[in-house]
Amino acid sequence: MQVIQNQKQANKPIKTYINSCYPSLTKSEQKVADLVLEKMENVMYYSVTDLADMVGVGETTVLRFCRKIGYKAYQEFKLAIAKDQSNAQGEQQENDDENGKHETFISAIAANSISAIQETASMLDEAALEKAIEWIEKARSVHFFGVGTSGLTALDAKNRFLRIGRRTDAVIDSHIQAMTASTLTNEDVVIGLTVSGSTKDTIDSLKIARENGAHIISITYYARSPITKISDIVLLSGGKESPMEGGSLAAKIGQLFVIDLLCTGLALRTKDFSLSMKERTARSVLDKIY
Amino acid sequence: MQVIQNQKQANKPIKTYINSCYPSLTKSEQKVADLVLEKMENVMYYSVTDLADMVGVGETTVLRFCRKIGYKAYQEFKLAIAKDQSNAQGEQQENDDENGKHETFISAIAANSISAIQETASMLDEAALEKAIEWIEKARSVHFFGVGTSGLTALDAKNRFLRIGRRTDAVIDSHIQAMTASTLTNEDVVIGLTVSGSTKDTIDSLKIARENGAHIISITYYARSPITKISDIVLLSGGKESPMEGGSLAAKIGQLFVIDLLCTGLALRTKDFSLSMKERTARSVLDKIY
DNA sequence: ATTTTTTTGAAGAATTTATTCATATTCCCA
DNA sequence: TGGGAATATGAATAAATTCTTCAAAAAAAT
């Protein structure tokens, strides 16, 4: 096994080493140096033999060259070049990014999604979250109300809670929402989902639930929208979404993030139970996979 | 199979490749993977023999491991690690700077979600994405197949595409999937969703679709899982998820991100149409809000 | 219980890396 | 300008590493 001794500290470009040694290299070695400098990006894929042949010198000369510029062996030299190149490339890329020239829609979407999460985290009222989790824990039943895109999020929410053994219900049909709401009492919790905070169907259903005494938690982007007036707890989800871009990824991620916080928060409070339920639900789908 | 996956050019973290192949590795190979992940900074100084001895397996197994995660030879793998490490070092420092905050479960979940997005972006094969978008554009019909948690994602996908005026279908019942698949032809595209890449129902349905000539695109975390063998295009979604934590937020976000890329990519290609459709769908829900 | 398939590493072939040493070249001084 | 010391060079060869083949062992399927 080879030992690494020459801990070349910082990532100084190899070019520097070569240049600083250049005058002390022999003629043949300089030819090696020339080719290495010229083909910097590719050298790392050559073997000593390749390199020697390309330059037109013996392998020994190449070896001697490597040692003179400060590496113990050819392998070490090659490794150093590899690192070096990746740094160089990295810088190249950074520059491109800053110039905004290489900004593909991919990185734009990524940035957008990430900021939805950060936004949500920063807007979060931890006290409200705590309280919401407490209510959910104590509630006889928990219903997620949402229609349209937020209805899908309601289904996701139900799925998440089921995984930790908490049976909740997602109601995504406005009529059934209304009917369900009318059966609730102050032992129940309803979680309303709507990004705009203005979705008629959901709000109407929440009103009914509220009239029957149920606790209302809402997850919305708009802190001063109709839904907040009829909610006991408001959790804000990030990911700005204009009416024109309904169902955007950012908004969805914001909602999911809040739901995950509720779910994880609850799981932490009921650790043993949640864990065993996670295990059970996981095992239950085990024979569904190849 | 006309696979267009794993174009290994940019500086994508090797960790990612290893993780995404992990389940498809044999027991001995996984031992290799474990040690590589653990000793990432040093592996580049080991020879195959060293590494094999340290893990306690034959050199051949190490070689096989390298090939499975996508490198042609040990040298190439080592070179890649070297590049990777020099990048990682830089980032490490950046992260250290930020670590002044108190780490609640909130920031932990946020970090987890963010890295799911970053991971997905970094694993993304742009050529495959392009091709997928092209296929979707030309297809007579596009069906999303998924069951369980991935079924919900299929519904999200349908919703997203509908917003830009592309009627697609989400099929989340395995029987109906099978029946639907049997009606498809080579003019149709099916997009299979499964994080594990091993979901029986989905895979069985995809097989039927494939037999009938349909184009298969799959979105999965695991690069070498059963689903990839029957797919024409594989798009990897980030957000590692052990069997124990099915339906995790990170995995869901990874899937959604990929779907958004497809959707946005398509929208960019058919700009005018998509815009007008966005407007129409948005207006259609306008009288649903207060 | 038996066959088939997969997994595995030992043996050795092929390649790559490193060393030795004889020859070639350069340099210095008479 | 010639002769000898010093240096430079690569062919030959040794050492090491990488890679392949193949048969045995383990696991999976029947």
UniProtKB/TrEMBL annotation, chains A, B:
The keyword Heme does not apply. InterPro entries: Homeodomain-like_sf (IPR009057), HTH_RpiR (IPR000281), RpiR-like (IPR047640), RpiR-like_SIS (IPR035472), SIS_dom (IPR001347), SIS_dom_sf (IPR046348), WH-like_DNA-bd_sf (IPR036388). PROSITE patterns: HTH_LACI_1, HTH_RPIR, SIS. This is MurR/RpiR family transcriptional regulator. SUPFAM superfamilies: Homeodomain-like (SSF46689), SIS domain (SSF53697). Residues 132-272 form the SIS domain. Keywords: DNA-binding, Transcription, Transcription regulation. It comes from Fictibacillus barbaricus. Residues 12-88 form the HTH rpiR-type domain.
